[in-house]
Amino acid sequence: MELQALWFILVAVLFTGFFFLEGFDFGVGILLPFMGKDDRERRAVINTIGPFWDGNEVWLVTAGGAMFAAFPHWYATLFSGFYPALLLMLAALIMRGVAFEFRSKHDRPSWRNFWDWSIFLGSALPALLWGVAMANFIRGVPVDASMNYAGGFWNLLNPYALACGLASLSIFTLHGAVFLTLKTTGEMRERAMATAKTLWTPAVLLSMLFMAYTYVETDLYQRLGINPGIVPVFSVLALFSVRTLLRRNASGWAFAMTGVAIAFSTATIFMGLYPRVLVSSLNPEWSLTVQNASSSPYTLSIMTTVALIFVPLVLLYQGWSYWVFRQRVAVDAHHEY
Hints:
This protein is mainly alpha-helical. It is 77% helix and 1% strand. The protein has one domain (2-324). The chain has a two-stranded antiparallel ribbon. Helix 1 (2-35) packs antiparallel against helix 7 (109-139). The longest helix is centred in the N-terminal third of the chain and has 34 residues, at 2-35.
């Protein structure tokens, strides 16, 4: 039981890291066609995430691998039931990766414009669908007594899940705009600051809508209690503080607070989910839990040893890469990542 809880926490941490890091990647990609007035400015926007975007996606691969090894029944039910949505998301991520590589292979404006919009679509679609997926985790999906998904694609696109998807899309876009205020200079930075201030209002409104809808559609608040603890409360406070910090030109703190809002919101979802990993809307007793969905204790113990060795190495390497590429990006720079 201790190893099962440990690996549930580790999966939650991996998803939290993915949403925090890939969240600003998605946000920058969504803003790319609108923030750059010409090719030089769009190239500068891409350069802000050029050294990081592929490394940030490693968190998703690691989270999927940890889920597969530690909770194979969760992985099997999730990937079979959510297959069309996950396939659509994968296609978008592939198109996004190809666009980063192919955009500069030709200087024809129509060529670059096509790949710029591919980056937009490849960023916006996953940002929306990840919110949809997390909402379905806690709301519940049709899972039968044999741990098989018994619904269809449209079961996943219910109003509650779409509300969560719009909330995640708006917060990731805000996160990306604040990141651009940290990584750009001059007029581009001023434009990013104005964009972030504008995006704050819809992000807050959609987040409040999702929170209210969660009270109606799920048992998350009942499980967390009247006093839900500091994690969900601080998530709300962090998001509300962003506007004030932007007005004071404290971009670093504003970025930290959008990151905290994303991280603590993800933690709240996993806190309300535990010890379940996937809720059954057909019968609560058919829900997948850390007990009935996990691997053997021996497998978990081996995985724990491996994780203790390699996870710190990955963190050190990624921290080093962020330190090396910490400088701001100027529009006149000609580096292409």
